[in-house]
Amino acid sequence: MQPLESLIIVAMAALVHASFQLSVSMLTLLSSHTIGAKHSHRRLLRLSGSFTLGVVVMTLFMLSTIALFAQKLLKSTDMMFAWIAVCGLLFGLGVAVWIFYYRREQGTTLWIPRPLALFLAERTKQTKQAAEAFSLGLTSVIAEFLFIVPPMLVSALVLLSLPALWQLGGILLYVLISLSSLLIVHMLIGGGHRISRIQQWREEHKRFLQFAAGSGLLILGFYVYVDRVLSPAVMSAAMGVM
Amino acid sequence: MPGQLIDVVKRGGERPTEQFTRDKLHASVLAACLSVRSPEGEAETAATNVCEAVIIWCGRKSEVTSHDLRRKAAEHLHRIHPEAAYLYKHHRLVL
Questions:
Q1: Three-state secondary structure string covering A85-141
Q2: Full residue range of the structural domain in which residue A93 is found
Q3: Does the residue A239 lie in any domain?
Q4: Which of A63, A79, A118, A214 could form a disulfide with A98 if both were Cys (CB 3.0 to 4.6 A apart)?
Q5: What are the sequence ranges of the domains in chain B?
Q6: How far apart are the C-alpha atoms of A114 and B66, rounded to whole Å?
Q7: Does A35 sit within 8 Å of B95, measured CB to CB?
C-alpha cells in the first residue's frame, strides 16, 4: 500500500474520531462555568488550552500504545484476522452510533454511563487550575474509549505497514484531524462567541453529527474490508488459478 | 414569604432536602447570564428580577422540588434573556 493511500485511511479514521463529542461537551461546560464565575479571559484561555493539550497528549499516547501492542502481538500471518476483527468492530459500532450515540432527550447528553457523566460534569464545574483542566482533557479521551478505539485500531494497523518517518507523520495527522472539532470550539470561545450559541448549534445538529459519525464508521469499515481483506484474498485466489 | 422556610427536594429525593436560599438561586441565574457574556449590571438585574418572580411563585408553599425551581426560574429568565435561559435550563444536559 502506498504511504499516501495509508494516510488517507488515517485521515478518514481521524475524521470519524473528530465527530465524537464528549471532549467538545466538556470544553463547552468548562468554558461556561469559567465565564459564569467571572474569571478573566486570560484564565479562560489558559483552562481551555490546558484541556485541549490534555486531549492531545492522551490521543497521542493511546494511538501510540495501540500501535505498539499491535506491532508486538500481531505476526504478519495474523494481520488478515486482525483486519477482519477491526472491520467487524467498525460495522458494529457504526450501527450502534446510528442508534444510540445521543440520548433521546433535550440537550446533547451522550450514551455514556450516567454516574460517569455526572462525575465528569461535577469535576468540570470544580476545575479552577490549568493542571486540573489538563487532567480533565486526559480523562475525556479515556471516557470516550469505547467509541474511539475502532478508528484508532484502523489507524494503528495502517501505520504499522509504513516506514518509521511516515508513521510519525501519520500519528501527527491523526491527532491534528481528530482534534479539529475541539480546536474550532476552542477558537470560537477564545474569539468571544457565546457558549449558548455554540451549544444551541450542537443541539440542533446533533442528529446529523450522529448520522455522520455512524456513516463514517460504516464507510471506513467497508473500504478497509475491500482494501485489506477482499483484495488480498481475490489476488491470491487469482494467482492460484494462474 | 419573608421569614418563611421552604424545603427544596433535590433531584427526585435522591439527595438530601435543603432549605431554599435566595442567594443560591441568584448566584446560579447570575452565572448563567454572565456565561453568555451579558454585562455585569444587566446580569445582576436579571438575576434579581428572576429571584423576585420565583419567590412570588413559591408563595405559601412549604416544599418545592429543585426541578420546579429551575423550571420556573428558566421561564422568567426566558422573558428577560432567552440565551441565558437556554443555558440555565440545559446546563445539566450538556454531557
A1: HHHHHHHHHHHHHHHHCECCCCCCCECCCHHHHHHHHHHHHHCCCHHHHHHHHHHHH
A2: 3-232
A3: no
A4: A214
A5: 7-90
A6: 19
A7: no
Residue A64 CA to its chain's centroid (Å):
14
Residue written as cell 468554558? A31
Any alpha helices (H) in B36-81, and if so which ranges?
Answer: 40-58, 66-80
DSSP label at residue B93: G
Q: pLDDT tens digits, residue range B26-35? A: 999 999 999 9
Min CA distance, B50 vs chain A (Å)? 17
Quickly state the pLDDT bin for B18 (edges 50, 70, 90). confident
Q: Minimal Cα distance from B36: which residue of A?
A: A194
**Smallest Cα distance from A145 to chain B, Å:** 15
Rounded CA-CA distance B83/B80 in Å is 9
Distance (Å, rounded) from C-alpha A106 to C-alpha B81? 20
Phi, psi of B68 (to 5 degrees): -65, -40
**A37 chain-B contacts, CB cut-off 8 A:** 31, 34
